[in-house]
Amino acid sequence: MLKIHEKYAVLCALLFMAFVCYSTLYFLPADDHLLRVAVAHSHGEVHDHEDGDKSHVHVRDLEERRRHQVERDKSFLRARAENEVQMPPPIPKPDIGAGDDADGRRITVKQMTKFAWDSYKKYAWGSNELKPISKKGHSASIFGSGDLGATIVDALDTLYIMGLKEEYEDAHKWIEMNLDFKRLARGDISVFETNIRFVGGLLSGYALTRDEMYLKKATSIVDLLLPAFDTPTGIPLALINIVSGKAKNYGWASGGASILSEFGSLELEFDYLSNLTGNDIYRNKIKTVRDFLTSLEKPDGLYPIYLNPNNGKWGQREYSIGAMADSFYEYLLKQYLVTGKKDTRTKKEYNEAIEAMEKKMLFSSSPSNLKYFANLKGSRVEHKMEHLGCFCGGMFALDAFNEPNATRARHYMDLAKDIGHTCHESYRKSAIGIGPEAFRFTNDVEAVAVSSQEKYYILRPEVVETWFYLWRFTKDQKYRDWAWDVVQALEKHLKVEAGYSGVKDVYQVPVTHDDTQQSFLFAELFKYLYLIFSEDSVMDLTQWVFNTEAHPFPVRNS
Fold this sequence. Notes:
Elements: H1 4-26, H2 33-42, H3 62-85, H4 102-124, E1 129-131, E2 136-138, H5 150-162, H6 165-178, H7 181-184, E3 188-190, H8 191-209, H9 212-225, E4 239-241, E5 247-248, E6 258-259, H10 260-263, H11 267-277, H12 281-295, E7 306-307, E8 318-319, H13 326-338, H14 344-361, E9 362-364, E10 371-373, E11 375-377, E12 380-382, E13 384-386, H15 392-402, H16 406-428, E14 438-441, E15 446-448, H17 462-474, H18 477-494, E16 495-496, E17 499-500, H19 520-532, E18 544-546, E19 552-554
Antiparallel strand pairs: 1-2, 3-4, 4-5, 6-7, 8-11, 9-10, 11-12, 13-14, 14-15, 16-17, 18-19
Pathway: Protein modification; protein glycosylation
Protein name: alpha-1,2-Mannosidase
GO biological process, one term: carbohydrate metabolic process
């Protein structure tokens, strides 16, 4: 048994050892370098740290050291799990506050395009369009009842121009492997919409890439549309059933008439197709239409919107620069431009038509002196301008830019600016910063929709289209600023969880969405927004001409 003094000696020794251990812990350096090395060794990893590392953790007791090591272990395990799962990066949400210059704003539009595309691919791949709230496919009646991938074809050249390479490759693969109208088309499809969206999109794909697959697909579709031209006048019918080959017109269109904007907006695509394939059948179909229109008498120099394809007589005397007429005038000018200004007949007919409309349909509002093109119904003037009609500002600017007569060029550039301003007023006066389907001019209102049936917005591009041309030709900064306002409005009011949706009333906040992401959001609106923030060399307007769906065709100088 230990004696009393020996017990005291042992106790003192134990106390001294405890003191030494505790002191050693207390006087550890604040730098946790050794701790980090130890943790790294525990995971089989040793990393050299650069001088000046400021990520110090002051470790003063065992509990703090233990907590810090646990946190590092958790971080390591999370990182390893993420690497093993290989999850794709999340779609970056556009930061609209960061776009303080043209480059930043262009990148924002590109991110918006990717977000909308990824949503379509996830929820509606192969369908014509997307319902971004319901998160499923959607198809308008113009596409019949088949899933034709309209969004894929309409978006193709936009994806290519923006440099969205993976998205473009996905579109290319789907078109190559799946796009077959004989197999997919069901019911009656619109000849006009099929031409401007599918044929136009495929031909522009070919023009940009020289991929023969696109040309073959475009040719096969146009061949299926040709029975629509089998009428006494050669004026094509509006609808065709691909399965039966039978064509017809809309019953509501002035007793089964053909519509000016539809049969008058085929020439760019058909003429280019003949140019590429060497097969004149497509060009000849359009030449028959053009020759017939040239031979007709025009009331007061104007083109009514309805024409009977059987007896060759005009239908109801209704006139417009918007719905059911718009792209007819656009194609008169653009056919002249795309042929290297060699098709002078179309330019002459364009000049005559525009001058007649200026005399009969162009008005100025009071008190703001806003210029607008009204609709005519017989002798009655309807003081309304449609969002569709706002495209004409861009058309006038394009004409002015290519007009050799200086006086005429100044006149139409001024008119283009006036229309661009009027359409901006329709946007400014809404609650969401984007304008309605149509707006009125009365004793009480200017550039405001009156009817509830005219207050909606379905992602239309025509106003931004006009600002794009005005920016390219004038370099007035306000057009870029106005376009950026639209970007912010889209993000604030039209963006939903899985894409972008139209709204039912632009004067009401919060908005009510229509749950439709139109295919022309990609073909037109996103493209024009992207290009307005791009250099002029991106789709140089002396080298390219856009069809009415904004699909670019090359100017043929030889």
